[in-house]
Amino acid sequence: MKQIYESLKTNETFQSRLDKIGCTDIDDDFIDCISLMVMDDPVTLEKTGQTYSKQALLDYFDNKNIHKIPCPKTKIEITRTEVAHASINYAFKSQIEKFVTREEKKAKNINTELKHIDKVINSSGASSSDNNISSQGPNDPLDSLITNLSKLEQDIIELKKESTTVGVTSRYTLSIFEKILVFHEQLEQLDCCVNYNPRRTGSSFLHQFKKKMKDYESDVQSALCHIMITLPSRIKTYTTIDEFKPTYETILEASALYFRTPESLRNSYGCDEYIEFLHAFNEQVKKLNNHNLTILPEIPIQQSTSSTSFKR
What we know:
Number of strands: 4
Largest sheet: 2 strands, antiparallel
Shape: flat
Helix content: 55-70%
Radius of gyration: 25 Å
Structural class: mainly alpha
Number of helices: 11
Distance between the termini: 35 Å
Strand order of the largest sheet: 1-2
Strand content: under 5%
Order of helices and strands: HHEEHEEHHHHHHHH
């Protein structure tokens, strides 16, 4: 609330703060369907279940000199009076504030890294071309990201070779999936570094790694299918901890990876059925704990995960 008060005090809108740092990857839920701007005064109408910018909607009524319109999303009729009497949804406004603040911090960190990059380049007299990027030193953040991504790419290749030799197992599927998730996280960081860098240093590496990530999408879908469909279908009723533990450890690792997966990579894979399975699995954990007098922790369950995805 303090952050919201400070932004109001300076008359700075959420949209202007995001424009200032060049952020364009914004959750659609935060954008008003009338003004197409990030909402500063969100109101949620119970009648439609939709959230709008209060002032933008009132201005629309006044400019058109009308009293009622169909909701742009649901087509349910809403009136100016309903909007005028609606209270600001401060919980939702707080979510927008947190998003904006997080993006501002991210931009600040990236700018700090870029200043370091420029300092190294200028002090060494190196050119800004990708060919000379390795001359910036082993501690350079951009160089480190490129090195890490190259290593991860090799690790994934090796794991795939091993899996074809011994046969595809849960261990290899999850190991490859974990490496790809780390690859995706590092790629997002590289994307930010390159795009916030006026010289676009590292852009050819970025393009190369984005192509590789595109290739990995089929592996991601296979892993998600394994986690959400194959593993649950193998679960049976266990009576002892010893026979249950290997399955438990696999499900524990798989669920951690699932909840770590950004929604941008999940595509059509929903979360409801898998969460239902985990709840049922945890019931089995409880029963075994009671029966065997053990304390095996339940599988942690999250409702959702999100991540800002780079533009491909």
